[in-house]
Amino acid sequence: MPPRKKARVGKRTPKSGDEGETASSPKERAGAKRKAATSVDTGGKRPDSPGVSQYCHWLMKSEPESRFENGVDVKFGIEDLKALPNQTGCWDGVRNYQARNFMRQMKEGQLAFFYHSNCKEPGMAGIMKIVKEAYVDHTQFDKKDVHYDASSKPDNPKWSMVDVQYQRMLKRFLPLSELKKYHLQHRAKGGPLKDMALFTRARLSVQPLTAEEFDFVLSLENKEPL
DNA sequence: GCCAACGTTGGC
DNA sequence: GCCAACGTTGGC
Q: With pLDDT > 70 as the criterion, what percentage of chain A qualifies?
């Protein structure tokens, strides 16, 4: 298994299906109640079977600059992912239910933006691919780990992670400030970034993008900075 | 380093 | 099941 990275709250997760799935937080349940039947928002997605839709593009945040949490540096930027064997790493350390649930929805082969957060210039740095679907995040049981969770038991793990592989850098870094201009513009007059989670759910570290959002953001790498 | 927004915890 | 207190995220 690849080394780990440091995702903050919403960072890294375990596997599918049965395990853990039943352990939903009060928040998740509340959310489910509010909305409809699933934890999946109705944002944009790709129908898989009748009545079910799911996302197929993602944004995952990590911090590219050194920051110490309990004496451990949580820095993990896209260059760090690229430097790993096979340019692949596990996205461990996610300790937020919504972020975890999104990771559990990820399918092998799907693409995600690598977003640099909590740094000088926050924004989209590059693209990675999901190469292994959700499985148990071992760091939840490691007392030495920054993201150790004493409340999670091995026979019913709470947290999951996926493996991601570096694909490429964006042709140019897309700063949050620029994305925000488009977001505001689109919110006023309509456009693909109108409801982008990056702005409407700012603190979520693993978030879905609709195909329209993903394509629009990607198209910006060929444009002049706004 | 500040602090607004928001997620989590725990008493009742 | 409500909600106040508390903790964390992450832009600025």
A: 77
